[in-house]
Amino acid sequence: MPLSPPIDLYLDTSVIGGYFDDEFAEPTRELWRQMDAGRYRFLISPVVTREIARAPEPVQLLLASTFTQADSLPASAEAQELAGQYVQHGVVSSTYEADALRVAIATV
Question: 38 — phi, psi (to 5°)?
Answer without folding.
Answer: 90, 5
